[in-house]
Amino acid sequence: VQLQASGGGLVQAGGSLRLSCAASGITFSQYAMNWYRQAPGKQRELVAAITSGGSTNYADSVKGRFTISRDNAKKMVYLQMSSLNAEDTAVYYCNAQHHFVLARDYWGQGTQVTVSS
Hints:
The chain has 117 residues and is mainly beta. It has no helices and 11 strands. It has strands at residues 2-6, 9-12, 17-24, 31-38, 45-50, 56-58, 66-71, 76-81, 90-98, 105-107, 111-116. Strand 5 and strand 6 form a beta hairpin.
């Protein structure tokens, strides 16, 4: 199983970034796809989630600014981030969680997002 996250980088406050995650080795349609982030000195937190059917959920801190989407045919999940601020600076991780088998829980390597104020 591989989850390859990309799209991170340095952006000014108020700017936008789009993260992508390519999945392989899993039956993509059986998995919820999630984006987590971890800032220095803080616990990893769930940012956004999307079920195989397209239902979404967001952390309160990113609602209205971030949009998660997926392409089941391409086995891709995206996180469109806008109105970025310094508090969004973190390593962002792609996660695949099987809908029914909790042990099937996989993580990507993370991509750094740095927002300069």
